[in-house]
Amino acid sequence: MLCLGLSGGLDKVYENPLELPKTFLHDGAAVLVRDGRVIAAVEEERLNRIKHSNKFPSSAIRYCLATAGVQLHDIDRIAFYATEGYCNTMLERLLVSQPNVSIPLDARLLLRTLLAQEFGAEVEESRLSFVHHHHAHAASAFAMSGFEQSLIFAVDGGGDFLSGVLAVGSGTEMAELASFPERNSLGLFYLEAIRYLGYDLFDEYKIMGLAPYGDPAPFRELFEQFYELLDNGDYRVHLDRIGPTLLRSIQVRTKGMPFTQQHRDVSASLQEALERIVFHILRHYRKTTGMKRLCLAGGVAHNCTVNGKLLYSGLFEDIFVQPAAHDAGCALGAALMVSGDLGMPAPVERLQDVYWGPDIGSERAVERELSAWAGHLDVERHDDIAASAAGWMADGAVIGWVQGRSEFGPRALGNRSILADPRPASNKGRINAMVKKREGYRPFAPSVLEEDANEFFELPEGKREFPFMNFVVRVRDSKRSVLGAITHVDGTARLQTVSRKSNPVYWEVISAFKERTGIPVLLNTSFNNNAEPIVDSVSDAITTFLTTDLDGLVVGPFLVKKRTTGLDDWTALTVSLPAYASLHRVRAFTAEDRQETACEIRRGHSNRDGVRISHGLFDLLMQIEGETVLGALLNTITLDRSKHEALVNELLGLWEQRCVRLHPPRATRTANGGSAGHPAAEPENVNIDFV
């Protein structure tokens, strides 16, 4: 039996009609399950290159079908990650706010219509299911835990009019014990507070990283006004109090402002408040159910600090956190739930890896993709790529590392990673500046050989496998100065243990680094810059390599360095607009009595996503049809070489922000017109309009 689980939005990548709440229809994904076992899974953002994509996951579905060698009509059941009633209510609210939008107010009909449009296949109603959002979260964790019985806590911002559920899992059954209304949302509690620290939705993890720099005591009493711990594990949060109180009590930070100690202390108080509420809930249900094991899922389960404190508390004998705990993981849960409905047994062993995404392709395909960039890259093949890469890093290099199938979920787990020496403390600031373009305090994670983990990290007795970076653990006192780049200010680290069985290629490069340095650990962070999701294809990796200050790139057995390039190298590339981009010419006031025409490129429907560009570049981009060689475009305008260079440099800035695409001409790329490891690219829809 084949079951396909879906999460995500209800409009296509080149459309922007639906203005739904940010907390609904994000993190799109598709997961294909055969007889209860995952055979393919990928987040839509990895393919359409929109962070936290709220688009219909058509590319992710195509990947899953292609991996299994099937068509949509071969799928026994398709499951969406929210109930039909909830989806219909959201569509009705959409009609009220956007009465001109022409879509059916019937979620089942809309989903069937989208599938028919995208895949040319009618889906019978009997094959389409809508599942409860938090039950999908819960199933995604319990079915993968390997536990016969456990307590299950699925907790997030919201979905299906709730913000979480508690259940007991036993065998293949789950029994709900309690649910939590949206007004008591722990996800929204955290989100509402971080708005006054200059952050927004999807930035919650940044505050988790900032919290150890602060002291919770100065604002503890203030935060205690925002929640109550009630009898029987119940609680109440007062979302309406947070904003007014913080406005009166702190210097509100706006985006880009420096952090003060006050901001750090507020972060620490917020993190402490979340931990107190979570422990209050779980202590009660641990006692009343007698369950010795715990499964966690939902966006709040990505708070690795809470998870680590639960781990060390001894409250539970074992804890499993679903590695794709956010809404993309609901696609997994939805597929497993309908698979169970069809009588398929759930997996009984514990999940060991999530390398379920697209493969980079054959060595020949990878070489062809790299060779297409011959004007920009020097490429060498190495028989022992692990030793070569390890030596490179031991000598100080920071590299991109791309191997095999991509990881499902938000963590780079050694197949789409940036790797470096974990010892120099300076590497943290260096990588934050050279690649991530982000706050210097942000920590990086260590990947350690599983057999050596206990030597460097204080692990609870009997625990040695931490493959998914889900727990913050203590670095041993004697190793903190040794592991300066991955040890956080409070002496902890977000750990990944690497098994030779689960990922032999990644294990080998860490082992080779150990042979060179005596340290069986690498600094590991996701391979992306601040404007994009984690890379997936070889083409993605090359783009990120060329638009950051990474020292090198390793793809399969190939070691890649940058060449010195000139104007002619760049003008030989083709330029195109991503399907999500649109060009706009607008009239704007630049003074009280003066208007000017401005040009911008947007990565979405909102002008908040706009990047101002010169009139010359706007006119140039307006000429693009599909994809066009940059040099040919420049030849259509009469400018001297210096002005051509200025336009190219402006274009390269847009490329770094992923507003445009640059790539070798199609004839020099892979034979099918796509990138190695990805299906052939779909025709791009360029939205060019004037407002």
Describe the main β-sheet briefly: 8 strands, mixed
Structural class, by secondary structure, is alpha+beta
Calculate Rg over CA atoms: 25 Å
CATH topology of the largest domain: DHBP synthase
Sheet with the most strands: spatial strand order: 13-23-22-14-15-21-16-20
Notes on the protein architecture:
The chain is an alpha+beta fold and 691 residues long. It has 4 domains: 2-81 and 84-130, Nucleotidyltransferase, domain 5; 139-326, 2-Layer Sandwich (Nucleotidyltransferase, domain 5), CATH 3.30.420.40; 363-562, Alpha-Beta Complex (DHBP synthase); 567-688, Outer Surface Protein A, domain 3, CATH 3.90.930. Helices cover 34% and strands 22% of the residues. The chain contains 23 helices and 30 strands. The strands form 7 sheets. An 8-stranded mixed β-sheet has the order 13-23-22-14-15-21-16-20, with helices on both faces. A hairpin with a 2-residue loop joins β22 and β23. The radius of gyration is 25 Å and the shape is globular.
Q: Tags for this entry?
A:
691 residues, alpha+beta, Nucleotidyltransferase, domain 5, DHBP synthase, 4 domains, eight-stranded mixed beta sheet, five-stranded mixed beta sheet, 23 helices, 30 strands, disordered C terminus
